[in-house]
Specification:
Blueprint lengths: L2 E2 L2 E2 H32 L6 H19 L3 H22 L9 H23 L13 E3 L4 E3 H23 L1 H11 L1 H6 L4 H23 L11 H14 L4 H21 L7 H12 L10
Antiparallel strand pairs: 1-2, 3-4
Helix pairs in contact: 1-5, 1-8, 1-9, 1-10, 2-3, 2-4, 2-8, 3-8, 5-6, 9-10, 9-11
Length: 293
């Protein structure tokens, strides 16, 4: 059997595919954070709880109303996105002119409230969600479930679609212009507060979509986003705060590096991303793709 640095090539390729799938969640989640930060300059600590809400929304629709996964994939992000827009208009908007610490406290407090309410209502133990795509394909070196292939391809399409919408469309041009100079954009008659509300809703909807995608792969539980969001924040810092391309590329790349570390240095697999983050902060504080402040 062919080996690479003492590891069978078949096992290594399998681990890389799993790393790509993990990277898909890192990219999708960090993309939502970056969209919000890029326009609103708000670090959304509620992101992990909104990820969990996406998974719970899919589970509730299926368990209570019999709504299938494919409909939930559209309905849940829409509902959570609209709810988050109401939150931005009524609470978060009041803090834009204040110190960023207040925004952090508000979003972190909301995350604790969401997780607490979910724990009270459903307990802390996980609940299963049926796989909507049973079966898989034999790649020769591993058996890849159809659903994991679907998650990977869907994440790629969403990431590329979001990048294109922000970098290549008129709406994206308005969002980027409002980020750089809100007063000038407002002088052209563009409703900047509405753009900000829409931006927050889109960023949260991306987290909710990631939650729906994760529901059949993991146990649906209140704290399922708590650990993930910490890693995602590290991904955003490494890629560059506010960089759409940085979030996507860094998310998938770090997923691969993490999977390689599990093969060659298992004891470091849980901290390798944070080690890279420290190195990037020391050598390039704006991130690998970030703009100079």
């Amino acid at each position: 059997m062919t080996e690479l640095f003492g590891i069978p090539l078949q096992a290594l390729l399998s681990q890389l595919v799993l790393g790509l799938i993990n990277g898909a969640f890192y990219a999708l989640m960090s993309l939502g954070l970056t969209v919000i930060f890029g326009m609103l300059r708000v670090i959304n600590f509620t992101h992990g709880a909104q990820f969990a809400l996406g998974a719970f929304g899919a589970w509730i629709l299926l368990s209570w109303l019999g709504v299938p996964y494919w409909a939930a994939l559209l309905l849940v992000p829409l509902m959570i996105g609209l709810a988050s827009m109401a939150f931005e208009r009524t609470l978060l908007r009041r803090l834009y002119s204040m110190d960023h610490l207040y925004q952090l406290l508000l979003t972190y407090g909301l995350a604790l409230i969401i997780e607490g309410l979910l724990s009270v209502a459903y307990g802390s133990s996980g609940m299963p969600y049926d796989n909507p795509l049973p079966g898989g394909i034999d790649l020769g070196f591993m058996f890849l479930p159809y659903y994991r292939a679907w998650v990977l391809s869907t994440s790629l399409v969403l990431c590329l679609g979001t990048w294109y919408a922000i970098e290549r469309t008129s709406l994206g041009a308005r969002l980027r212009a409002a980020t750089d100079n809100r007063e000038l954009v407002r002088a052209f008659g563009i409703n900047v507060p509405r753009l900000m509300t829409l931006t927050y809703g889109i960023g949260v909807a991306l987290a909710a979509i990631a939650g729906v995608l994760a529901a059949p792969m993991d146990q649906v539980r209140p704290a399922m986003g708590s650990g993930l969001v910490i890693t995602v924040f590290a991904v955003v810092v490494i890629g560059g705060m506010g960089s759409i391309l940085g979030s996507v590329v860094t998310g998938f790349t770090l997923g691969l590096l993490e999977s390689l570390t599990k093969v060659y240095f298992p004891s470091l697999s849980s901290v390798v991303i944070f080690m890279i983050m420290v190195a990037v902060i020391l050598l390039k504080p704006n991130g690998l793709f970030g703009r100079q402040s």
